C-alpha cells in the first residue's frame, strides 16, 4: 500500500464510457480514489451506493471521486447503470493501476482466496500526496462499505 504523505503515481486510463482519464489532470484540488474488489458484490455495491447517495456533498466541495477495479468495460458499465452511479469507474483490466497503488494482493472474496484488489480508499490532497487512507494496515479505519461516504465526509469536515 501507499503510505500517508507519499506522492501517488501518475497513470492514464479510461472510464467505463471510454472517456480518457489522466491523473495529472487532478493536481490542484483534493480527490478520492477508491479501489474495490469486484463489481456487483454485496460490499462493493454498498460502498458504491454510499458514495452515490452522498456524491452531491463531494461535488459541491469540488472533490471528485473515482472508483477503480479490474473487470471489463462491459461489467463496469452494467454496474454503473444498474445502481445509477453518478461518478466515474476507471478501467484497470490488467490491474496495472492497482499494482501501482500496491493494492493488488491475495484476497478472500466470497469465501475463495485469489489474487485481487484490496478494498482501500486514498484521500489525495491538492499536491497529489496521500492525505489519508481507509482500509489496509495503513488505514485510519477499515472501510465501512455501508457508510463509506460518511467516513470521507467526516475526515475532511464536509457538511452533509
Notes on the structure:
This protein has 160 residues and is an alpha/beta fold. The protein has one domain (12-156): Glutaredoxin. It is built from 4 helices and 9 strands. The protein has helices at residues 42-60, 73-82, 96-100, 148-156; strands at residues 12-14, 20-22, 31-35, 65-69, 89-91, 104-109, 112-117, 120-124, 130-134. The strands form 3 sheets. A 5-stranded mixed β-sheet has the order 5-4-3-8-9. The N and C termini lie far apart (30 Å). The mean pLDDT is 92.
Distinctive features:
160 residues, two-stranded antiparallel ribbon, alpha/beta, 5-stranded mixed sheet, 4 helices, 9 strands, Glutaredoxin, globular, single chain
Compute the number of helices.
4
So what's the CATH class? Alpha Beta
Kindly report the average pLDDT value: 92
Strand order of the largest sheet: 5-4-3-8-9
Structural class label: alpha/beta
Known CATH architecture: 3-Layer(aba) Sandwich
Give the full name of the CATH homologous superfamily.
Glutaredoxin
Order of helices and strands: EEEHEHEHEEEEH
Rg, Cα atoms, Å: 14 Å
How would you describe the shape?
globular
- Indicate the low-confidence ranges by residue numbers: none
* CATH-assigned fold name: Glutaredoxin
Distance between the termini: 30 Å
Beta-strand content estimate: 25-35%
| Largest pleated sheet | 5 strands, mixed
Number of domains: 1
What's the topology here?
Elements (H helix, E strand, L loop, with lengths): L11 E3 L5 E3 L8 E5 L6 H19 L4 E5 L3 H10 L6 E3 L4 H5 L3 E6 L2 E6 L2 E5 L5 E5 L13 H9 L4
Parallel strand pairs: 3-4, 4-5
Antiparallel strand pairs: 1-2, 3-8, 6-7, 8-9
Helix pairs in contact: 1-4
